[in-house]
Amino acid sequence: MALALPRHRRQAVPERDLADSAALAADRYSKEEKGDKPRDKDEKGLRWQLPFLALGLLRQMSASSNIIHDCDEVFNYWEPLHYLLYKSGFQTWEYSSEFALRSYLYLLFHMLVAGPTSWFYKDEKIQVFYKVRLFLGLISTITETVLIVALSRKYGKRLATYTLAMLCLTSGCFFSSTSFLPSTFSMYAVTLSSALFLLEKYASAVSVSAAGVLIGWPFSILIFLPVTIYSLIKGSFKKVFLSGLITSVSVIVLSVYVDYYYYGKWTSSIFNLLKYNVLGGGESHLYGVESATYYLRNGFNNFNFSFILALLFVALLPITLKKYTPDLLVVVSPIYIWLAFMSLQPHKEERFLYPIYTLICVAATAVIDTFPDIFRDRFSTEESFMVKVAKILRPVFLGLILCASHSRTFSLLHGYSGPLVIYKHLEHHEDASPGSILCVGSEWHRYPSSFFIPSYVKEVRWIDDGFRGLLPFPFNSTLGGTAAAPSYFNNKNKASDMQYLHDIDACTLFVELDLRRPHPSRGRDLSKWETLAAVHYLDRELSPAIYRSFFIPYSWHQKNVFGLYKLLRKIPQNNVDQD
């Protein structure tokens, strides 16, 4: 007789539990599909060694090969630094104690490297120039490495790796990373504060922000506002607030004391700069006015299609916000704030965008990483054809952007490096008489700094070639050096009668750019001048935009027009008479 077992009816599952189970399954599928599976601590993204080595290599290349993109970098920073080291150099009206717009605290930060290097190399001033650049490249490497590690830990290796590639190879980051400018210092601070924010180091993020504004560029405060405000909300308000306050007060006090030491009176370069530009008196339009689209064109030149992708981050907000949480939006939001604010200003310069360059890379790579999510059907359990194509296109599109960026970098380095090359030739012509006078005409704005001027050159003088603005004068030690307020300076960009050497016969050496125009070139007068060195220089006006902007093999040399950047030496008159 078979043993009969009692039959139990299976308990019915409520419909709500079934719905919850389905939702959990769908959520689990979605996380697996997007690669959001929990990671072990050992797998939390990239380690610091790879980004540090990659960025370090590219920043070293930038330090050794970068051209000087802005005469303000030379006359407002390299020249005062040269004066602090060697007691000679050019002074701009901003450094007159009457106006005191420039911070000596910013210069002293670079003296940490420039001072010891000048003692070690003594007669090799050009080595000091490049060692300071290496120092700038090192700071850039460190701050960007922290950002890559932060992105990797929070959002995964792919986003971090793509961002690393952009930081290494985009033209904008390559050139700005080793520029001696307050806007570059602000870029370092923006990069580091954003990284610390993503790492949830909110107090440190606000302290770095304060230093970036007060030591670097005061107007960059707008860029730091999103991270600062959100840090106050997410972190311990008291701790974050005190951290920012203590840093701000400390930097301001130190800045005022340093300004007093160098300007010879109690003043604040931070307040003076804000007063000049904001509180009525700022006349930046005197130095050039550009259209509202200037920064859009400039951004595309330096980042090509990655700049467009960065702007699309907001358009894809429903996807990017869900994928990256609000934190990444907080980090990249200064791009749009800064572009809108700066586009409204009449005076525009490329360096004004430097502080947001690293953020452009982050926003662009976030959009590239989101490509598959644009085509993903949330209700489908299988990948569509378009999702698979989008995944393949991610590295392909990134590669095209990086190739275009490298092409742009190569074109600028080879097309416009003439001034640095020519001035380096001076150290090979010590046979020129001691006390020589080097003259520069219309090419004054490409003067690479006194670090390139050897000891046998007594002075550098400007020649009147038609420029009617105010030019820099040598620091005058007899009037007080850094504390002087010379009468020939003004804040209206009006030329002084004293800024030019009117007797051109006093010139021993001459630097000029011969663009083969109808107007006369001194170098063509072979009875008075001999050419010591000449290198090709890209003629921007006569070269087609596409070929001058990007290096295209074979076509770059064939399609572009070149002039000659020359170093000339005056032929002694007795030699001419004998001939």
TrEMBL record:
Entry membrane topology: Multi-pass membrane protein
Transmembrane segments: 104-121, 133-152, 159-182, 202-233, 240-263, 303-321, 328-346
Keywords for this protein: Endoplasmic reticulum, Glycosyltransferase, Membrane, Transferase, Transmembrane, Transmembrane helix
Listed GO CC annotations: endoplasmic reticulum membrane
An example molecular function term from Gene Ontology annotations: alpha-1,2-mannosyltransferase activity
Compositional bias (Basic and acidic residues): 28-43
Pfam families, sorted: Glyco_transf_22
Compartment list: Endoplasmic reticulum membrane
Listed GO biological process terms: protein N-linked glycosylation
InterPro entries the UniProt entry points to: GPI_mannosylTrfase (IPR005599)
Pathway annotation: Protein modification; protein glycosylation
EC number: 2.4.1.-
Location of the region described as Disordered in the Swiss-Prot/TrEMBL record: 23-43
PANTHER family recorded: ALPHA-1,2-MANNOSYLTRANSFERASE ALG9, GLYCOSYLTRANSFERASE
Family as reported in the entry's similarity comment: Belongs to the glycosyltransferase 22 family.
Annotated protein name in UniProt: Mannosyltransferase
Originating species: Dendrobium chrysotoxum (Orchid)
